[in-house]
Design a protein that fits this description.
single chain, alpha+beta, Immunoglobulin-like, 5-stranded mixed beta sheet, 5-stranded antiparallel beta sheet, about 50% helix, about 10% strand
C-alpha cells in the first residue's frame, strides 16, 4: 500500500474541515452579535459615547451623504478643522468595507445610538470570524476556536474603547486576525506559488481601517512571523511570499497612509506635549485585572494625573489568564516548547503597553487588544496540553498536588480568593467588587466541577467558551463599559439646522465640552446652538470648528483648537474683540455667523456689525448684518501681500462642491490682476485652471486658498483638490490591484486545469482497467 505523504494528509484535513470551519466562523460571529444584543438590551446607549457622538457618527453621516451625491468624501465642506476626511485617517476614507458599511447602515431609518451599535456590531462580527479562522487554521477544535474569537472580539479594551468610543481602533483591528491568518497561509509551503494573495486584501483593509497603532501591530506581527519562519526553515526564501503579499497590501492602501503623512506634517499632533507619551500606560499594579476586572489601580489619564481606574481594559473572561498559568504549572516545559514563539511575543506586547510612546503615537494601552488575541491563542495551547498533564499511574502526593494546581477551574478559584483578599486588605476593589467577585468565584467553581464530572470530552471542550462568555457578560453588566469618557445627550433634532443658517460660515465659542455638556452636568439635550465637535455635519452647517486628533496646519493651529473642537478661550476672546470687524481676519475667512455659549460673556465687536438672531439657554447666535458672504470673492487687497493692489473681477455662477469649486470669472483689462479668495480651508494639493490654463494656488497664512487671475482673463475657473499623494497613491493602488486580480484569475485557471488533468488521468486509469482480459476461472478459484 502506498504511504500517504504529509502534504496529502494536510490537504485531506483542509478539505474535510472547510465546511465545519465556515459554519463555525459564522457561528462565532453570531455568538458575538448575540452578546452585543444582550448589552443593548441592558443599556440601549452602550455603544453611544464621547467620540462616537462628537466625531464618528456626524462624519459618517457626511460620508454617506457624499456617496449619495456621487462625490468621493475626501473633504468635508462642513468643518474647517475636520475638513480633510482622507487625511484624518480614522474615518476609513479609502476602505471599501468601511464605506460600504456606512452607506448600508445610513440607508436604514435608525437613531444615532442604533447607528453606532450597528457600526460596531458589524465590525465585531468581522473580528470574531477572523479570530476563529486564525485559531482553526492551527488545528484547534471548533469550541476552542470560538473561545479565541470571544476573547479577541469581546475583551475589555475592545468593548470599553474600540467598540464604544474609538471606532478607528475597531475598524482596523477587526482585520488583524485576518491579516495574521493570511500571512500564515502565505508562509505555508504546502500551498501553491500564488499563496501570497492570502495576505494582500486583509493588509489593505487593516491599514485603511483607520488606526495607526494597528499598523504598528501589523509590522510587529510581520517581523515576528518572519523570524519564526526563518528560524524553522533555515532559509530566508520561506518568507518571500508573505512579504510580497504584505507589500501588495501596503500598495493597495497607499493613498490612505500617504494622506495621513501629508496631513500630520506641520500639525499640532506633530508637536504634541511630551506628557502625552506617559498617559494611559498599563501600570504593573493593574495586572490582577486580568483575573478580576473590578481591581482598581492608579493610571495616568488624559490629564496626566494619577487617578484610580477600574482595570476593565484587561478583562478577558477569566479563562485565558487562568488557563495559561495552569498550563505553565501543570505542563511546564511541554507547554513552553509548544508556545516558544508566541510566549515571547505575548510578553513583548505587554511590555509595549507599559512603556511610554514616542513621536506622534500616544497612549500605550492601545496595544492591549493585540495582547488579548495572543493570550487567547496561548491559552488554547495550554488547555490542550492540560488534557493529559501527568503520566498514568502518578498517584503520589506531589503528583496529586500538581494535578489539582493544574486544573484551571481550581486554580482560578484560588486566584480569585487571593485577589479578593488583596482587594479587601489594600482597598483596591472599587465599587464594583461586589457582586462581581462572588459571581466570578461561582463561575470558577462551575468550571472546576464541570471539568471534573463531565466525562464527555466533546462537551468539556465547550466549557472554556461558555465560562468566557458568561464572565465577560457579567463584567459589562456590573461595570459600565467606557466609564472613563463622557456621554452627551445629543438628540435627533441635530439633523435640523434651525436656528442656524446653512448658507453662513460659523465660528462657535464654547467651553470644554466634556466638562460642560456631559450628561452629569446637563441632562437636557445639548448641541442645537453650539454644535460641539463635528456635530454640525449632521445638518449640513458650515463651521470652523470640528473634531480632529491631528489638528492640521492652518485654522486648527492658528486658532489653537483642541481635539474636540473648542477654541482656546483666550483666542476666542481675541477673535471676537479684535478680528470680528468687516476688515478683520474672520471676514477674510468668510465667517458671517458666530455662536457664543451661555457660559461665556464675550460678544463680537463692533456691535454695530452684528445682530442677535437667536438666544437660548445654551447660548446666543450672532449674524453679520447683511447677506451671507459669497463663497468666492474678488478682493482689492490682502494684508499678506501689503504692497500689492488688485482689480475687482466679476464672479458669477459659483458651483461650490465638496472637492472642487467652479465659477465664471471676468477680469477687466489693464495692468493689474485680480485676486480671488475661496471660503474653504486650505490643504496642500489644490490646483486651479482657467479653461485650459493652469494658475498658481497659494494661501492666506495657510488658512484658505487664493488664486491670482491675470488681467483681461475671462472664462470658467476651476479649483480642484488633487494632491500629489492622491495621484501617486491611486496609481500605485491601481497597479497593485491589477497584480492581485491577474494573479487571482491565473491561480483559479491553473487550479481548474489541474482538476481537469486529474479527472482525465482517473478516466484513463479506469479505461485501462476495463480493457484488461478477465482472469481465467482457475485463478478465480
Amino acid at each position: 500500500m502506498k504511504r500517504r505523504e504529509p502534504g496529502d494528509i494536510e490537504s485531506t484535513w483542509r478539505l474535510t474541515q472547510t465546511p465545519y470551519s465556515f459554519f463555525g466562523a459564522i457561528g462565532a460571529g453570531l455568538i458575538v452579535v448575540g452578546f452585543c444584543l444582550l448589552l443593548l438590551w441592558h443599556d440601549p446607549l452602550v455603544f453611544w459615547n464621547d467620540d462616537y457622538e462628537l466625531s464618528v457618527l456626524p462624519v459618517f453621516a457626511d460620508v454617506a451623504r457624499s456617496w449619495s451625491e456621487g462625490d468621493w468624501p475626501l473633504l468635508s465642506p462642513y468643518s474647517w478643522v475636520c475638513g480633510n476626511l482622507a487625511g484624518e485617517f480614522q474615518y476609513g476614507t479609502f476602505s471599501l468595507f468601511v464605506n460600504t458599511a456606512v452607506v448600508v447602515i445610513w440607508k436604514s431609518p435608525l437613531t444615532f445610538p442604533q447607528q453606532a451599535a450597528a457600526l460596531s456590531i458589524t465590525h465585531l462580527f468581522v473580528l470574531a470570524v477572523g479570530a476563529f479562522l486564525l485559531a482553526r487554521d492551527r488545528r484547534f477544535s471548533i469550541p476552542l476556536s470560538i473561545f479565541v474569537a470571544l476573547v479577541a472580539s469581546l475583551n475589555g479594551w475592545i468593548i470599553c474603547w474600540g467598540a464604544t468610543d474609538w471606532f478607528g481602533a475597531l475598524g482596523a483591528f477587526a482585520w488583524l486576525p485576518w491579516a495574521w491568518w493570511g500571512a500564515e497561509r502565505a508562509l505555508d509551503r504546502q500551498r501553491t506559488k500564488w499563496r501570497f494573495l492570502w495576505s494582500a486584501p486583509f493588509v489593505y483593509l487593516l491599514i485603511t481601517g483607520g488606526f495607526p497603532y494597528t499598523v504598528l501591530m501589523l509590522l510587529l506581527l510581520i517581523a515576528w512571523l518572519s523570524i519564526k519562519s526563518v528560524g524553522q526553515t533555515r532559509t530566508i526564501r520561506s518568507i518571500l511570499p508573505m512579504l510580497f503579499g504584505v507589500a501588495l497590501g501596503f500598495g493597495l492602501s497607499t493613498p490612505a497612509w500617504l494622506a495621513i503623512l501629508d496631513l500630520v506634517h506641520g500639525s499640532a499632533r506633530e508637536l504634541q506635549a511630551a506628557s502625552a507619551h506617559w498617559q494611559w500606560l498599563v501600570p504593573p499594579a493593574a495586572l490582577p485585572g486580568l483575573i478580576v476586572p473590578s481591581w482598581t489601580a492608579k493610571w495616568v489619564d488624559f490629564s496626566t494625573h494619577y487617578v484610580p481606574h477600574t482595570t476593565t481594559e484587561l478583562s478577558c473572561g477569566l479563562v485565558s489568564t487562568v488557563a495559561l498559568l495552569a498550563g505553565l504549572i501543570g505542563c511546564g516545559r511541554k507547554l513552553v516548547r509548544q508556545i516558544k514563539w508566541e510566549l515571547p511575543l505575548l510578553l513583548l506586547v505587554l511590555l509595549l503597553a507599559m512603556l511610554p510612546t514616542a513621536g506622534v503615537f500616544r497612549w500605550s494601552f492601545r496595544w492591549l487588544p493585540f495582547f488579548h488575541l495572543i493570550l487567547g491563542l496561548c491559552a488554547v495551547e495550554a488547555l490542550r496540553s492540560l488534557q493529559d498533564p501527568l503520566k498514568p499511574g502518578s498517584s503520589d502526593l506531589a503528583s496529586r498536588f500538581v494535578r489539582l494546581a493544574s486544573n484551571p477551574g481550581a486554580l482560578g478559584f484560588v486566584f480569585l480568593v487571593l485577589t479578593a483578599v488583596m482587594m479587601a486588605s489594600l482597598r483596591v476593589g472599587g465599587r464594583y467588587a461586589f457582586p462581581l467577585t462572588w459571581i466570578f468565584l461561582g463561575l470558577a467553581a462551575l468550571w472546576y466541577f464541570t471539568d471534573v464530572f463531565f466525562r464527555n470530552a466533546k462537551v468539556r471542550e465547550w466549557i472554556p467558551a461558555a465560562i468566557t462568555f458568561l464572565a465577560l457578560l457579567v463584567t459589562y453588566l456590573c461595570i459600565p463599559p467606557n466609564g472613563g469618557v463622557p456621554k452627551y445627550n445629543l438628540s435627533q433634532m441635530l439633523l435640523k439646522p434651525s436656528p442656524l443658517d446653512p448658507q453662513r460660515l460659523y465660528l462657535s465659542i464654547y467651553p470644554w465640552a466634556e466638562h460642560t455638556y456631559r450628561i452629569e452636568k446637563k441632562l437636557q439635550p445639548v448641541g442645537q446652538i453650539v454644535r460641539p465637535g463635528s456635530t454640525s455635519m449632521w445638518a449640513r452647517l458650515r463651521f470652523i470648528n470640528g473634531y480632529s486628533p491631528i489638528r492640521p496646519a492652518g485654522v486648527a493651529r492658528e486658532f489653537a483648537t483642541t481635539i474636540h473642537g473648542e477654541i482656546n478661550p483666550a483666542m476666542g476672546d481675541y477673535l471676537l474683540n479684535y478680528q470680528a470687524s468687516q476688515d478683520g481676519e474672520l471676514a477674510l475667512l468668510g465667517v458671517d455667523g458666530i455662536v457664543v455659549a451661555r457660559e461665556l460673556g464675550v460678544v463680537p465687536q463692533p456691535a454695530s456689525e452684528w445682530e442677535v438672531i437667536g438666544s437660548a439657554d445654551e447660548g446666543r447666535v450672532f449674524h453679520r448684518r447683511g447677506a451671507p458672504f459669497a463663497r468666492v470673492r474678488s478682493v482689492p487687497s490682502i494684508d499678506s501681500r501689503p504692497n500689492e493692489q488688485f482689480v475687482s473681477a466679476t464672479v458669477s455662477r459659483v458651483n461650490d462642491s465638496r472637492n472642487h469649486v467652479e465659477t465664471n470669472v471676468d477680469v477687466p483689462s489693464g495692468d493689474r490682476p485680480a485676486l480671488l479668495t475661496f471660503s474653504r480651508p486650505y490643504f496642500r494639493g489644490y490646483e486651479a485652471r482657467l479653461d485650459n490654463h493652469k494658475l498658481a494656488v497659494t494661501s492666506y497664512r495657510g488658512l484658505f486658498p487664493i488664486v491670482e487671475v491675470p488681467a483681461g482673463s475671462k472664462g470658467r475657473l476651476t479649483l480642484t483638490y488633487r494632491p500629489s499623494w492622491l495621484m501617486w497613491g491611486s496609481g500605485t493602488a491601481v497597479a497593485c490591484a491589477l497584480v492581485v486580480i491577474l494573479s487571482f484569475f491565473t491561480a483559479i485557471s491553473e487550479r481548474i486545469k489541474a482538476r481537469y488533468r486529474f479527472l482525465g488521468s482517473s478516466r484513463s486509469s479506469i479505461t485501462r482497467l476495463s480493457k484488461r482480459p478477465a482472469p481465467p476461472p482457475s485463478m478465480l478459484r
